[in-house]
Automatic annotation (TrEMBL):
One Pfam family linked to the record: TsaD
One GO CC term, this protein: cytosol
Residues covered by the Gcp-like domain: 30-147
SUPFAM superfamilies, per database record: Actin-like ATPase domain
Protein name as catalogued: tRNA threonylcarbamoyl adenosine modification protein YeaZ
One annotated GO biological process: tRNA threonylcarbamoyladenosine modification
Species lineage: Bacteria, Bacillati, Bacillota, Bacilli, Bacillales
InterPro entries reported in the protein's UniProt record: ATPase_NBD, Gcp-like_dom, T6A_TsaB
Species in which this protein is naturally found: Jeotgalicoccus coquinae
Annotated TM spans: none
C-alpha cells in the first residue's frame, strides 16, 4: 500500500509518501508562503525522492481541517483532483489528529490551533503506540472552557504561528502527516465528489450574511 499524504491546514506544509504505513519520504516546511504556490511542486519532489510514480499510488490521505479556510481548501482540492485523476480512494483525517501524533508523545495530548478571540480549535486524544482514544472531540471553543475540562494532558501548538490565547505551558509541534497512517481508525474513506473541508465553524463572511438576514 503506497499512500500520498497532504496537510496544508495552516502555515506549516506537510507532504509525505508512505509504504505500508511507514514513511518513505516527506517534506515539512514551517514558513509563511501560500500553499497554492508550493504544494504541487512539493508533491512532485517527494515522489521523486521516494522514486515512486503517481500511477503507483494506492490512495490519498488529506487533512480536512480545522485550520485556515484557504489552506484547508487548497489541500482538499488537490487531493480530490489527484484521486479522481488516478482513480484511487481519498481518505481524510482531522488536522488536530495530525498535530496530536506528530511528536511521538504518548498519553493524553491536547492539540490546539489558535482561532483568535480567545478561541481555539482543540481536542484531546489518548495516544498509544498504534491506537488511540478520542477523549474530547475536535471543536471550536473558548480556550478557558476547554482547559477547564482537561484534567491532565500535554498541550500541543505550532509556536511559529500567532498565539493569542492565554496559555502558560505547551509543546511546540510542526505537523507531520506521515505519522497518521499508523492509526487507521483515524482515517475516513471519502467520496471524492462530496469531500469538503471540516472548518468546525462558519466563516466570518457567512456569519455576517446570516446576521443580516
Amino acid at each position: 500500500m503506497i499512500s500520498l499524504l497532504l496537510d496544508t491546514s495552516n502555515q506549516a506544509l506537510s507532504v509525505a509518501v508512505n509504504r505500508d504505513s511507514k514513511m518513505v519520504a516527506e517534506i515539512n516546511t514551517n514558513y509563511k508562503k501560500t500553499h497554492s504556490e508550493t504544494l504541487v511542486d512539493n508533491i512532485q519532489k517527494v515522489l521523486e525522492i521516494a522514486d515512486i510514480k503517481k500511477s503507483q499510488l494506492d490512495r490519498i490521505i488529506v487533512a480536512k481541517g480545522p485550520g485556515s479556510y484557504t489552506g484547508v481548501r487548497i489541500g482538499i482540492t488537490v487531493a480530490k483532483m489527484l484521486a479522481k485523476q488516478l482513480n484511487i480512494p481519498v481518505y481524510s483525517v482531522s488536522s488536530l489528529f495530525v498535530i496530536a501524533v506528530s511528536n511521538g508523545i504518548k498519553g493524553n495530548t491536547a492539540p490546539l490551533i489558535d482561532a483568535r478571540r480567545a478561541h481555539v480549535y482543540g481536542a484531546v486524544y489518548n495516544i498509544k503506540e498504534d491506537d488511540y482514544t478520542e477523549v474530547i472531540a475536535p471543536q471550536y471553543i473558548d480556550f478557558s472552557s476547554l482547559s477547564a475540562d482537561i484534567k491532565e494532558a500535554v498541550y500541543l501548538l505550532n509556536s511559529s504561528e500567532k498565539i493569542t490565547v492565554d496559555i502558560d505551558e505547551y509543546t511546540h509541534v510542526t505537523p507531520r502527516i506521515s505519522q497518521t497512517e499508523r492509526y487507521e481508525r483515524a482515517l475516513k474513506l471519502e467520496d471524492a465528489d462530496q469531500l469538503v473541508p471540516d472548518y468546525l465553524r462558519i466563516s466570518e463572511a457567512e456569519r455576517n450574511w446570516q446576521d443580516n438576514q
